[in-house]
Specification:
Radius of gyration: 25 Å
Structural class: mainly alpha
Order of helices and strands: HHHHHHHHHHHHH
Largest sheet: none
Shape: flat
Length: 303
C-alpha cells in the first residue's frame, strides 16, 4: 500500500513538472542563460561583432578607478533615487489620505489624480519639456505671477535633476491607488476606540493609520527604489540623447546604454550591469533586514 502511494506521488509530481516545463525552458533560455552569458562577458572585451577575449577584472578596475563618468552617472542616479523615492512615497500617502475622506465628488478627484499614472511615457516627457521651458513654459509663467523668477530647469545643471523629480511627483497616482486600497482595509473600530480614548486626528494617523499600511509602504519603497535605479527614458528623451548640461542627467542606465550601443563596448556595459545589480541587491537586502523593525502585519505576534 505504501509503495502504491509513493508511486502515485511520483507520478503526480512528474505531471506537475510536465505542466511547468514550458516555463522552465523559457526561464533557462531567456533569463538564466542571458544572465550567465552577461556575467562571463563582463570579464572580456566583447564588442558584439567578433572580439571576445578574456581580460579578467580589467573592466571592473576601469570602472572603479579610471572612469570618471561612471562615478558621475552613479551620483546622478543616487541623487535621483534619494529624493524621488521618499517624496513620491510621502506624496502618495498624503493624497490617499485626502481621497479617503467622505467628501462630494470623491470619485472625480480620484480619477483626476490617477490619470497621469496611465499616460504614455514619451508623451508625458514631451509635455513636461514644454511646461519646463524657461521662456514660454507654464511653470515659469505661473511663478512670474507671484514675483518669482523661474530657473532654467532643463538647461541649468543645478535644476535638471530636480526637474525630473518634480515630473515624477506628478505621477504619484499609481502609488496613491495602492495606499487608498490599504486605507480602505483599516478597521473603523480602531478609530472609534481611539476617539473614545481622546486621541487627536494626528495621533490616530500616527498610531493607527501608518502602522496598518506599513506593508504597502514597504512594498512601494522597495519597488520604487529598484525602478529609480533603472531611470533611462526620461533623460534620453528630455535631453535629446545628450545627457543634459555638464552630464547632469547622465544616469547610470543611460551611460551603460551608451557604452553598449554607441561605442559597442558590450563587455564593459555588462560589467556595469553587474555592479548595478550588486548595488540594488545590497540596498534591497538592507530594506528586508530593517523591515521587521517597522513593518506591521495584522495578526503577527511581536517577538
Amino acid at each position: 500500500m505504501k509503495k502504491r502511494k509513493l508511486h502515485f506521488k511520483r507520478q503526480e509530481g512528474l505531471v506537475g513538472y510536465i505542466f511547468i516545463l514550458p516555463w522552465i525552458i523559457g526561464f533557462l533560455i531567456f533569463t538564466a542563460g542571458p544572465l550567465l552569458f552577461s556575467l562571463g562577458a563582463s570579464f572580456t572585451n566583447y564588442n558584439i561583432t567578433s572580439q571576445m577575449d578574456f581580460i579578467g577584472i580589467r573592466n571592473y578596475e576601469k570602472l572603479l578607478v579610471d572612469d570618471q563618468l561612471f562615478w558621475t552617472s552613479l551620483y546622478n542616479t543616487l541623487y535621483y533615487v534619494a529624493f524621488s523615492v521618499p517624496l513620491t512615497t510621502i506624496g502618495a500617502i498624503f493624497l490617499s489620505v485626502l481621497l479617503n475622506q467622505d467628501v462630494p465628488g470623491l470619485r472625480f478627484f480620484r480619477t483626476i489624480y490617477y490619470l497621469p499614472a496611465v499616460l504614455s511615457g514619451v508623451g508625458v516627457y514631451l509635455l513636461w519639456m514644454q511646461l519646463l521651458d524657461p521662456g514660454t513654459g507654464l511653470i515659469n509663467m505661473m511663478l512670474g505671477w507671484i514675483g518669482i523668477d523661474g530657473p532654467n530647469w532643463l538647461f541649468d545643471p543645478e535644476w535638471t535633476k530636480p526637474s525630473l523629480i518634480l515630473m515624477k511627483l506628478w505621477s504619484v497616482g499609481g502609488g496613491m491607488l495602492l495606499y487608498l486600497a490599504s486605507l480602505q482595509g483599516v478597521p473603523k473600530s480602531l478609530y472609534e476606540a481611539a476617539e473614545i480614548d481622546g486621541a487627536s486626528t494626528f495621533q490616530q494617523f500616527r498610531y493607527i493609520t501608518l502602522p496598518m499600511i506599513t506593508p504597502v509602504i514597504f512594498f512601494d519603497v522597495v519597488t520604487s527604489l529598484i525602478g529609480g535605479f533603472q531611470i533611462f527614458q526620461e533623460a534620453y528623451v528630455m535631453t535629446n540623447g545628450g545627457g543634459g548640461p555638464v552630464n547632469s542627467l547622465l544616469f547610470y542606465n543611460y551611460y551603460m546604454w551608451n557604452k553598449a550601443f554607441k561605442v559597442f563596448d558590450m563587455g564593459y556595459a555588462m560589467a556595469m550591469s553587474w555592479v548595478l545589480f550588486l548595488i540594488v541587491f545590497v540596498l534591497t537586502m538592507i530594506n528586508l533586514k530593517l523591515a521587521p523593525r517597522w513593518v506591521h502585519y495584522e495578526g503577527e505576534a511581536k517577538k
